[in-house]
Amino acid sequence: MVDQATVLEQYHRDGYAIFRDVLDAELVAEASDHVEWLQRKHPDVRPEQLGHQYLRDDPFWIRLVSDDRLVDIAELFVGPDIALFASHYISKPPFSGQPVLWHQDAAFWPLEPMEVVTLWLAVDHSTPENGCVRLIPGSHTTPTAATRDAAEVDNVLGAEIAVEVDEARAVDMVLAPGDVEVHHPNIVHGSNANTSAKRRCGLTIRYIPTSTRITGDEQPFPSALWLRGDRGVNTYQPVPDFDAGRHFRYRGAGEGSSRR
Description:
Blueprint: H1 4-14, E1 16-19, H2 25-41, H3 59-65, H4 68-78, E2 82-92, E3 100-103, E4 111-112, E5 117-122, E6 133-135, E7 147-149, E8 159-161, E9 171-172, E10 180-183, E11 189-191, E12 200-209, E13 213-214, E14 225-228
Antiparallel strand pairs: 1-10, 2-12, 2-14, 3-11, 4-13, 5-10, 5-12, 6-9, 6-11, 7-8
């Protein structure tokens, strides 16, 4: 049983928290199979870039991000009225997985106000050897810094924070499949390249209170989904029906809504 007060105290102090064994092994295995299915479907897309443009009409992805165990965690940080803003598989293949350079998520997102929490769901074991997330504790208390283009090395974002980062303070987020790491939109974080023989895959899930407005040009935003409570200020994507001819098959596929 998680001590909510302790978790929230750590989050407010350090900018992150970890929840262990959130999802069952069978669902995590389905998520792993889903990533492999997406890679076969989109062979020209790097596996670090399996974002919402490839997921927006995907019943399994919706089933995953709307799982009550994940949304219950999000509710601790954003309250009872919850929507999905965005989500993205970052799957670093063995030996060639790209790094994510130091950055703050808030620098990239069209949200007003910047009230959002990221849940990073581990699909694989995530370790320093295969390029786990690294965070600078306490850096969430600093303002959002400028970014700059970064093309010297191949990397997931193509950009980095434009201020010096004290990497000696970094903490590795070592996670097992089914664990969840939660972090603040202003925390400085990144990850190294995967030069190991083991894949490192995680799903980022960005939850917002429905009072936060998504201000992107495309409305409804491609990955905006209403999940819980009052619908708030945004418009949302419809939940697609499962189609065996074009969707990933999973437990319960086609049995009512993808949202559980």
